[in-house]
Structure formats: structure tokens, C-alpha cells
Design goal:
Layout: E1 4-7, H1 17-26, E2 32-37, H2 49-58, E3 63-68, H3 76-82, E4 86-90, H4 97-106, E5 110-115, E6 133-137, H5 152-166, E7 171-175, H6 183-189, E8 193-196, H7 198-201, H8 207-218
Parallel strand pairs: 1-8, 2-3, 3-4, 4-5, 5-6, 6-7, 7-8
Length: 220
């Protein structure tokens, strides 16, 4: 399974968004990650479908939309129409999660499922064939720049084992505190898709150096 680095524009300088997206593309990013927060499920408020439309005009890379919102079912079509290639929804916000994932697939969007640090991996067992991606939050969602929760490494291992046992081809994505210091450990535990914000857009030597540091850490 190929390895993916997905810069999160939550950490970008939005006044220079077009240039910053060009920089991550040139530096070897694979996806663009858009964090959508509603101020209800999580404390912060960020982007909506219009931001996805804007990013879509700037790049041909796959756009990965992470919906940290209540009642995500009401908004799936809007984000799909805006140009999202992948949409992940939280287990914690969807009472009929299997139907939500099926709806995304019927829209032609790759369905993903997200679980918070405190949500057990065992809750995924009946769903592993319904999603293409499982996003394991390695911080509690809502803000960028948080510290990686070390106990999530074992959760990645257990998720990898569950997917293998159930015959799921889904990739494991991790988001939260991903940096050149944490990415290798997550990779060795079974993750192949890495969302990074501050480690890329906030790198002291610039965006290109931030992405290079992540790739270098993976290749050690």
C-alpha cells in the first residue's frame, strides 16, 4: 500500500493559500487535507464547502475532507459537489454510520470513518468493509498544533490487526501531532496515510523542508 502525506491547510497562511498549495504540491504532497469544524462537535470553527471549491481550483491533487461536525449527513452532497474526493465522518456523530458511509460511496466519494482517541477500535468491527479509510485521531480534535498522544501507537497496531483479520483493504490515516519525530513510529505500527499541519506549514526552514523532513523520517 502506498504511503500518503496530506498537508492540512488548517495550518496554512490563508492569505497566501494558492502559493502555499503550490509549494506542497511541488514538494511531493499526495493529498490536500481540509479540516471542517462547526463549533459544536468541536470548539473551533473553520471551513465549509466554499473552501473546498477554492482548493479544487488550485490543484488536481485529491482533496481529503474531514468533517468534524454534527449531523454530517446534511452536508455530504455539498462537499461532494464542491470537489471532495475523500470525505471522512466521525463515528461519534453518526447514529446510522453504515448508511452514511454507503451514501458517500453512492455519491462517488471515497468514504472514510474517523474515531476519537477515546473511541474503542472494537467499534469498527462491523464496518471495516464499508470504508476506504479509517482516520485515527492521535489528538483530541478541534485545534491544530497539539501534542501527539503516545498511547495511540498501540491503537494503530490493533486497528491494523482488525483490518487484516476482516479482510479490509482500507488504509489507516493518522492526524494530530504528526511530525518527523512521530511519523516513523506510526508507520511501523501500520499507518500509511499521514495528515500534518504545523510540521509542514510551520517548519522553520519552510514548507518544502517540512515535507522533506517527513519523507526522510519515513525512509530511515
Amino acid at each position: 500500500m502506498s504511503t500518503i502525506i496530506a498537508p492540512s491547510i488548517l495550518a496554512a497562511d490563508l492569505s497566501q493559500l494558492g502559493d502555499q498549495i503550490r509549494q506542497v504540491v511541488d514538494a511531493g504532497a499526495d493529498w490536500i487535507h481540509v479540516d471542517v469544524m462547526d463549533g459544536s462537535f468541536v470548539p473551533n470553527i473553520t471551513f465549509g464547502p466554499d473552501m473546498v471549491k477554492t482548493v479544487r481550483k488550485m490543484t488536481d491533487l485529491p482533496i481529503d475532507v474531514h468533517l468534524m461536525i454534527v449531523n454530517p449527513e446534511r452536508h455530504l452532497q455539498a462537499f461532494a459537489d464542491a470537489g471532495a474526493d475523500h470525505i471522512t465522518v466521525h463515528f461519534e456523530t453518526c447514529p446510522h454510520i453504515q448508511r452514511t458511509l454507503q451514501t458517500l460511496r453512492e455519491m462517488g466519494v471515497s468514504p472514510g470513518l474517523v474515531i476519537n482517541p477515546g473511541t474503542p477500535v472494537t467499534f469498527l468491527r462491523e464496518l471495516t468493509l464499508d470504508f476506504d479509510l479509517i482516520l485515527l485521531m492521535t489528538v483530541n480534535p478541534g485545534f491544530g498544533g497539539q501534542t501527539f498522544i503516545e498511547t495511540m501507537v498501540d491503537k494503530i497496531r490493533r486497528t491494523r490487526a482488525l483490518l487484516d483479520t476482516t479482510g479490509s483493504a482500507a488504509m489507516i490515516q493518522v492526524d494530530g501531532g504528526i511530525s518527523s519525530e512521530t511519523i516513523r513510529t506510526c508507520y511501523e505500527a501500520g499507518a500509511t496515510n499521514f495528515v500534518a499541519g504545523s510540521a509542514i506549514f510551520g517548519h522553520k526552514d519552510g514548507i518544502s523542508a517540512g515535507i522533506k523532513a517527513l519523507w526522510d523520517a519515513l525512509e530511515k
